[in-house]
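Q: Sequence in, structure out?
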Amino acid sequence: MNRTTLFILLTLVLAGCGSAGDRFKIEGRLLNMDQGEFYVYSPEGGINGIDTIRLQGGRMSYEVMCTAPTTLVMVFPNFSEQPIFAEPGKSVKIEGDASHLKEMKVKGTKTNELMNDFREQIATANPPQVLERAEQFIGDHPESVVSNYLLRRYFISGATPDYAKALQLCRTMRKAQPKNALLAHYEQQLKQLSRVTVGKRLPRFSTVDVDNKKIDNATLGKGLAVIMAYATWSYDAQRMLQDMRMLAKSSKGKLKIIGFCVDPNRNQCRAIAKRDSIPWPVICDGKMLESPTLHSLSLFDIPDNILVNNGVVIAKGLTNDELKQRIERML
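A: Exactly. Output:
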C-alpha cells in the first residue's frame, strides 16, 4: 500500500537560519511556481506544531528561532517531502524547480549538502535500492542527523515499515549519539510498534476525540472493530470512509469503528465530521501523521487501517477492497 506522505494543500517550502545566533533562516527561489503556500513541521519539535510558508513571486524567506540543531520538513504538492537541517546562527539557500522537485538543492551547511548527496544517489533508484542505500548511509554515518531523518522516513514511516530493521539501526545510531533523546524515544517506540502484529492483542492506547470524549481500547468493545487513519483530502481515504459507513449501518451495531483524521486543523475536522454525520468517534490532534497515538498503533499511511476481533489484530494495512471483503465475510 503506497504511503501518501502527509497532507498538505499546495506548494513548496524553504526554511533557514538567520545571522543571529539563535535564529535559523532559509531563503530560496522556486522556478515554475509564482505563488502559493505550504506547511513545514519539525518531527523533533523544533517548531511549535505546523507552520505555513508563503511563496510570492517565486521567492520565499523563512526565519525561525533555533537554539539547537533540529530538522524541518517541507511537504510538496505531490506529498513528497524535503528535510532541511537547521542549526543555530546558520542560514541556507534553496534552489529548486517546481517541475523537478527531486533535484532541489539546499546549500549553506555541510549537513544539508550531505542530504543533497544522498538524494542524488537515490534519484533513479527503485524502492528496494532506496532502502538499501538508506541503510548503507546510516551505517556509514550513524552520528549524523541526516541518518536520524532517514531512519524515520524509510524504516519507520515508509510505505512498508520495517520495525525490526529500524530497531537494529536505531541501536547502532544510539551508540554514536548516546545523548540523543529523540533516538531514545524511537527505540522505545519501536519496541512497542513491533507488538502491533497480526495475531497479537492490540496495544493499549488512550486519547480523546474531537468532542473531548475519552477513547481507548474499551471503546472497541468485543467483536469486530476497525481503526482507520484518513484525511479529507485523500480520495482513497474518502472512499474507505463511505464503505465503512455502509458496513457500519448494515452491521446494526456489530462493527465498531474509530477514525483518526490527519488533517492539520482540529476544529475544521470536527466541523466536517458533524457535517458528514460520521457516526463513530473521530480523533484529530492537529499533528497529522506525527500524532503519537497514530505512531503507537503503527498507523503511518493514508488511508491505513487495523482490523481487530475481540481485541486481537487480525489484519493491518488492507486496501479498501480487501478491508471491505474481509469485514463482509465476518459479519
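The domain at 206-330 is CATH 3.40.30.10 (Glutaredoxin).
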